[in-house]
Amino acid sequence: MLIGNHCISIDYLSTLIRNIPKLRHGLVKSDIFPQDRQNFSSCVKICSDDVTNCLTEIHDSEGIIMYIRLLRSIMIAYIEKLTTPINRLYHAWFSVFVSRLWYIWIDYMPKVNLEKSLYELSGITTNKK
Length: 129
Description:
- The chain has 129 residues and is mainly alpha-helical.
- The chain has helices at residues 11-19, 22-25, 29-32, 40-46, 49-55, 62-78, 85-108, 111-122, and strands at 2-3, 6-7.
- It has one domain (2-122).
- It has a two-stranded antiparallel ribbon.
- Strand 1 (2-3) and strand 2 (6-7) form a beta hairpin.
- It is globular, with a radius of gyration of 16 Å.
């Protein structure tokens, strides 16, 4: 997935697990490659501030950081029971605005440019002549 000029990929989390000690982020391989696709506890671990802070040390990880912040805001706004009303409002609107801007960006970007950016950021080469 793309957000702006940044790629959102599980590869950044895999790099994080390989290169940064577990004590700093708390993730294991089974958190990002789960057998059970409905493992919410892994989602909570991935969205933690520790993971976001560690991802800042990985080159070009801004896209996944933004995506994780979006997921975290959704969890704070709609799932966490101890969220104050003002924080709930802030995180609900933050997630709405980010999602809308992302959708508008995808909608208005020419498909050719979108594919080109995706190929460049993911390192995939195209067979088109």
